[in-house]
Design brief:
By secondary structure, the chain is an alpha/beta fold. The chain folds into three domains: 1-97 and 274-304, no CATH class; 101-272, NAD(P)-binding Rossmann-like Domain (Rossmann fold, 3-Layer(aba) Sandwich), CATH 3.40.50.720; 306-451, NAD(P)-binding Rossmann-like Domain (Rossmann fold). It contains 15 helices and twelve strands. It has helices at residues 7-13, 34-54, 56-59, 83-89, 117-123, 145-153, 174-197, 217-223, 232-244, 261-272, 298-303, 323-342, 364-380, 394-404, 428-451; strands at residues 65-71, 106-111, 130-136, 157-162, 202-210, 249-255, 282-285, 288-296, 314-318, 352-357, 384-388, 408-413. An eight-stranded mixed beta sheet has the order 1-8-7-6-5-4-2-3. Strands 11-10-9-12 form a four-stranded parallel beta sheet. The structure holds NADP nicotinamide-adenine-dinucleotide phosphate. NADP nicotinamide-adenine-dinucleotide phosphate binds at residues 318-319, 321-325, 356-359, 390-392, 414-418, 437. It comes from Strombidinopsis acuminata. Residues 314-451 form the Ketoreductase (KR) domain. GO terms for molecular function: fatty acid synthase activity. InterPro entries: NAD(P)-bd_dom_sf (IPR036291), PKS_KR (IPR013968), PKS_NRPS_Biosynth_Enz (IPR050091).
Length: 458
């Protein structure tokens, strides 16, 4: 059934995925084991994405995917591993499932948080599943690659749990946030590199973060920018999972900011349920368990008011001499042109575009696109110019934001440097270069804009 489905049909099924097995699961062939049964849910999503690749034409106008969270209730893991099979057997697909073999007790290595969540999670582990727990409590900054190697290779770990991302930085100052991001990203990268080299030393690899995905404004107001400190672990984990292949399962689990005992019990269950482990990005909140699905954007766009280009002020584009910046620059000008045409009674759009880069030099490959921007801007009487600003440096961003406050009406962040490498060839230096002008720059921008009020910044 899955093979025959067209993207649109699968997409239509996605919103019905409320509660496991309802609608979506029923669309797939009868599985023979609990593992296979669960996999079919995740596989449905993969199939959807893969099929879309083959059918770009009809869906090209909906090709910007949105991530959405679907509730997927799952039973708490039992000591004998029977709960998933029993649960799935009761679903509409009525699979006749073999019970999995009795589980062995596992050795567990935990990079523990200071707040004690990891301890509470493991105290709630299903009975008879934990053989030993080694808590590594040194600060990540104190652990080098040799220390990590010793830890990973000293035992055949059933589970390695990276829980340090649960600790929020001490304050919302960038001076407190940046070292946490660096320590988490560096250690997680080194750890997964080691696991990839020593696959027999690790059965499952779990990584935890705390409400990185929340869109609850109250939580953001309360916790502030530091809530995002562990967010790079998610993107890293997605690419790492591909390289680890099936040899080591990697699960990314985002948990509630202030988890209840029941929430932590669910996290423990998630870590020990082998059928579901690593099949989805999971959020475990006090309100339940949610899995991430990519969905087509059209329904979301239909509910959102269309973007209106600012009429005045300064719009900054970081990475301003790059390819993407030329696309955005021209698009903004075309929107300004349309706004002028549609509102002849209003003063013409008069924003200025500042294109930020380290060199402020237009390279040959962008020359034609830039010439087009200059031409269009001249017809609209709009000013566009290149400005030197290294967005990896807080002081450069601060200088720019301070200079144009309170007139900044938009910022598009496209600065980026590619440092592609497979895990064995990846280094912290490369990683830092990439993170620097992406996430680090975002945090500096956010921080600076919190101090400099720009009332019309959309
Ligand atoms: N092009 C696409 O289709 C596409 C699609 C998805 C994602 N992306 C991502 O979007 C980003 C931009 O893509 P692109 O194609 O426009 O790349 P690009 O042509 O290489 O442009 C990136 C620009 O960023 C500038 N830059 C690098 N570090 C900077 C820093 N510290 N401060 C200020 N500016 C800096 C560079 O100019 P200087 O060296 O002069 O600073 C460069 O011209 C990349 O990270 C890329 O991975 C691109």
């Amino acid at each position: 059934a899955a093979k025959a489905a067209k993207p649109a049909q699968v997409a239509d099924e996605v919103p019905k995925l409320v509660g496991a097995g309802e609608g979506f699961a029923a669309a797939f062939a009868k599985p023979h084991s609990a593992d296979e049964a669960y996999f079919s849910l995740a596989k449905g999503q993969r199939h959807f994405e893969e099929t879309v690749q083959d059918c770009l034409e009809p869906v090209s106008s909906e090709m910007c995917f949105v991530c959405e969270w679907y509730p997927e209730a799952w039973p708490l893991e039992s000591k004998d591993r029977s709960s998933t099979a029993t649960f799935l057997a009761g679903l509409p697909m009525q699979a006749e499932l073999e019970l999995p073999p009795a589980p062995a007790k596992e050795h567990i290595l935990v990079f523990a948080d200071r707040g004690g969540c990891c301890k509470r999670i493991l105290e709630a582990a299903p009975e008879r599943r934990v053989g030993s727990i080694t808590f590594e409590e040194r600060a990540l900054a104190e652990l080098d690659a040799e220390d990590l190697k010793e830890l990973v290779t000293q035992e055949k770990w059933g589970l390695i749990l990276f829980g340090t991302g649960l600790d929020l930085p001490a304050s919302n100052s960038v001076d407190d946030i940046m070292p946490v991001i660096d320590d988490l990203s560096r250690t997680w990268m080194e750890l997964v590199k080691l696991v990839a080299r020593n696959k027999k030393n690790c059965g499952r690899l779990g990584v935890l973060s705390r409400d990185v995905f929340t869109d609850d404004p109250k939580k953001h107001r309360k916790a502030g920018l530091r809530l995002e400190a562990a967010s790079s672990l998610w993107g890293m984990s997605n690419t790492m999972r591909i390289e680890l292949e099936e040899a080591v399962h990697l699960a990314y689990i985002d948990i509630e900011l202030k988890p209840s005992d029941e929430c932590l019990k669910r996290v423990a269950s998630e870590l020990f349920c082998q059928e579901t482990f690593g099949q989805n990005t999971v959020r475990i909140l006090n309100s339940g368990r949610y899995i991430m699905r990519q969905v087509q954007c059209k329904h979301y766009q239909a509910r959102t008011p269309s973007f209106e280009v600012p009429s005045s002020g300064v719009i900054a584009i970081t990475g301003g001499n790059g390819s993407l910046a030329q696309v955005f620059g021209l698009h903004l000008l075309e929107m300004a042109e349309r706004k002028n045409r549609e509102h002849p009674g209003l003063p013409p759009v008069s924003f200025t575009i500042k294109l930020l880069s380290r060199s402020a030099v237009v390279r040959d490959r962008e020359a034609q696109a830039w010439a087009e921007i200059v031409k269009k801007a001249a017809t609209l009487n709009i000013s566009v110019d290149h400005v030197k600003c290294d967005v990896t440096k807080a002081e450069s961003i601060e200088r720019f934001i301070a200079e144009y406050t309170p007139n900044i009406t938009g910022i598009i962040h496209t600065a980026g440097i590619l440092q592609d490498a497979m895990l064995p060839g990846q280094t912290w230096e490369k990683f830092e270069t990439c993170l620097g002008c992406k996430s680090r720059a975002c945090i500096y921008l956010h921080d600076s804009l919190e101090r400099h009020h720009n009332p019309d910044l959309g």
